[in-house]
Write a structure and sequence with these properties.
Distance between the termini: 89 Å
Structural class: mainly beta
Number of helices: 0
Largest sheet: 7 strands, mixed
Shape: rod-shaped
Number of strands: 17
Order of helices and strands: EEEEEEEEEEEEEEEEE
Length: 206
């Protein structure tokens, strides 16, 4: 808006890009003391809005007025999940745009992670408790948007909880060796004799 005085009638012409007495840069139909832009878009942003006020004695331009158009965040690159082993590291990132520049908050199962406020989040020295669904909430003054979920799987090395034991048998009888082991993903088994694989011996017992 502009306020003006002088011998009436006064006429108004809003412009962009010029403050001299020439009539360049006119905004069509903008001929009242107030200029209203409905449904602003980024292209409307500028620091060069001004109004030329005219009467029968001459004209005077107003000072320039600025319009800043903020834009809600938009995610341009979604985070990706991963599979790692215990002790390794994992980094997950999200790409986003927005005006003003957005802030970031990573979450684990929907719960904010303290200090995880960058576009990338890194976990070091992983343990099974880090396996989870992660996402990121991207926010600025125009709103917020939540990324897709990135699932982290943390695998564990095989652990033998029950070792095979030595056996003594008579000739012609059977001897069965067994082992119990856990791990993520579930481990496979291969029995060996003198470090040489035994064909087909791939169960927990042999």
């Amino acid at each position: 808006s502009v306020g003006a005085s002088g011998t009436t009638p006064l006429s108004y012409q809003w412009r962009r890009g010029t403050t001299n007495l020439a009539n360049g840069g006119r905004i069509s139909g903008a001929n009242s003391p107030t200029l209203t832009i409905t449904g602003v878009v980024p292209g409307d942003a500028g620091s060069d809005y001004n109004c030329l006020v005219t009467n029968s004695c001459g004209n005077t331009p107003s000072n320039n007025a600025s319009l800043t158009v903020n834009v809600a965040p938009q995610i341009t690159t979604q985070p990706s999940g991963g599979t790692r082993c215990v002790g390794q590291s994992w980094t997950v990132c999200v790409g986003a745009t927005g005006t003003p520049a957005p802030t970031y908050q990573w979450r684990k199962f929907g719960v904010p992670i303290s200090g995880a406020t960058s576009s990338c989040y890194t976990l070091n020295n992983l343990d099974p408790g880090d396996a989870a669904n992660y996402d990121c909430v991207v926010t600025n003054s125009c709103g917020s948007v939540t990324s897709n979920i990135a699932t982290l799987t943390v695998n564990t090395a095989p652990f033998i909880s029950s070792q095979p034991v030595a056996l003594t048998r008579c000739s012609g009888t059977s001897a069965t060796f067994s082992v119990t082991a856990s791990g993520t993903p579930s481990p496979t088994f291969q029995w060996r004799k003198d470090t040489v694989n035994i064909s087909g011996a791939t169960g927990t017992s042999y």
